[in-house]
């Protein structure tokens, strides 16, 4: 089932990018919609007693309808972290509406996002005690980014995933 979920996510992200690349629409102000893909790395804050916070890694695909508003979908997974002598890991799938406010003539922007995320945390201690959490909830985040050039940017984000689960990441986006 895990492989199937990852395959479906990859196909969905690929489809979004194909549709986004073909949907170059002029908005009358000289702006054409812009699809992007990216990668991120960071740390989950799983808030589980006796567990270390796992390192996070993920992918993001999005589309900016205009310079301010857009949408994005992301998948973030983790490595195994220590959980009372055993292991714990986390993953989240999210779909968000985004808003960016660009600081004039700097390439720097502030970003906000709001949407829905499904977060799964699973762990087993050395004594075979299990911990499982599977939540779908309203999620949001804030970030700061820098457009290195019109086709490449970097971002730092803090996401609140609901039920005391948080995610802090840094990443890079390639825009088409």
Automatic annotation (TrEMBL):
InterPro entries reported for this sequence: Beta-barrel_OMP, OMP/PagP_B-barrel
Keywords tagged on the record: Signal
Stored Pfam families: OMP_b-brl (PF13505)
Residue ranges occupied by any Outer membrane protein beta-barrel domain in the UniProt entry: 12-160
Protein name (record): Outer membrane protein beta-barrel domain-containing protein
Signal recorded as keyword: yes
SUPFAM superfamilies: OMPA-like
